[in-house]
C-alpha cells in the first residue's frame, strides 16, 4: 500500500480508470489471441509503472490531487501544479515503459511462486477486475500467469505490439480530470479499511 498516496499510485488508478472506460472499444476483437494480449498488456503496463516508480523519485512523491475537490480547484496553483506533475508522469510512462522488463518481472515471480501484483491489490478498492477478461479470472493465479507468460513468449512479436499499442493509447487518451474522483474514492476506502483493521487489532490486544 506504500504507493497509494504517491504519484505512482495515481498512475495506477489512472490506468485502471482509462481501461474501464475503454474496454468496450479496445476489447472487441474477433481474434481471441489479440483480445487476450491486449488485456494482458494492461497488466504488464501496471508492472512497468511499478518499475519506473522504483527508480524515479517523482513517482514516489506525495500526490495531493485528492485536495482538489471542486472543478474550479483544478485552475488554482495546487491544481496546476498537480496537473504539471501528471503530465510528467504520463510522459515518463510513455518513454520508459518496457515490455521485456515488465514480462521478466512476471516470469521471475512465477519462478519464485510469488504474486507479481501483490503490491497492487489495493486497486480492488475500486472494484478492480484485475484488468482481466472475465473468463480468465481476476485474481492473477500463478498457474494462469504461467500459461499466459508462455503465450506471450510463443507470440513475442504480437505481444510486444499489443503492449506498445495499449501504452500509446493510454498515454494519449488518459485525462487528468477523469481520475480525480476515483483517486479520492480509493483513498477514502483505504482510510476506512485501515481504520477498521486498526480497531480490530486494538480490540484483540485489549482482550
State which percent range the strand residues make up: under 5%
The gyration radius over C-alpha positions equals 18 Å
Give the quaternary arrangement of the chains: single chain
Roughly how much helix do the residues carry, as a percent range?
A: 55-70%
Number of contiguous helices: 7
Descriptive account of the structure:
The protein is mainly α. It has one domain. It contains 7 helices and no strands. It has helices at residues 7-26, 32-55, 77-96, 99-111, 142-154, 156-173, 176-206. Helix 1 crosses helix 7 (176-206) and helix 4 packs across helix 5.
Brief summary:
The chain is mainly alpha-helical and 207 residues long. The protein has helices spanning 7-26, 32-55, 77-96, 99-111, 142-154, 156-173, 176-206. Helix 2 (32-55) crosses helix 4 and helix 5 (142-154) packs across helix 6.
Helix and strand layout, with pairings?
Blueprint (H helix, E strand, L loop, with lengths): L6 H20 L5 H24 L21 H20 L2 H13 L30 H13 L1 H18 L2 H31 L1
Q: What key attributes describe this structure?
A:
7 helices, mainly alpha, 207 residues
Amino acid at each position: 500500500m506504500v504507493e497509494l498516496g504517491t504519484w505512482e499510485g495515481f498512475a495506477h488508478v489512472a490506468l485502471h480508470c482509462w481501461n474501464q472506460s475503454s474496454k468496450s472499444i479496445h476489447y472487441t476483437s474477433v481474434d481471441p489471441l489479440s483480445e487476450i494480449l491486449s488485456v494482458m498488456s494492461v497488466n504488464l503496463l501496471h508492472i512497468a509503472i511499478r518499475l519506473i516508480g522504483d527508480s524515479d523519485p517523482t513517482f514516489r512523491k506525495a500526490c495531493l490531487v485528492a485536495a482538489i475537490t471542486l472543478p474550479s480547484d483544478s485552475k488554482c496553483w495546487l491544481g496546476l501544479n498537480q496537473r504539471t506533475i501528471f503530465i510528467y508522469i504520463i510522459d515518463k510512462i510513455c518513454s520508459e515503459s518496457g515490455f521485456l522488463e515488465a514480462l521478466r518481472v512476471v516470469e521471475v515471480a512465477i519462478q519464485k511462486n510469488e504474486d507479481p501484483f501483490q503490491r497492487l491489490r489495493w486497486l480492488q478498492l475500486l472494484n478492480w477486475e484485475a484488468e482481466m477478461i472475465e473468463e480468465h479470472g481476476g485474481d492473477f493465479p500463478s498457474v494462469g500467469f504461467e500459461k499466459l507468460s508462455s503465450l506471450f513468449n510463443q507470440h513475442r512479436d504480437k505481444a510486444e505490439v499489443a503492449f506498445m499499442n495499449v501504452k500509446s493509447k493510454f498515454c494519449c487518451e488518459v485525462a487528468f480530470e477523469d481520475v480525480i474522483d476515483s483517486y479520492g474514492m480509493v483513498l477514502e476506502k483505504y482510510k476506512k479499511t485501515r481504520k477498521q483493521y486498526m480497531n480490530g487489532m486494538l480490540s484483540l490486544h485489549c482482550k
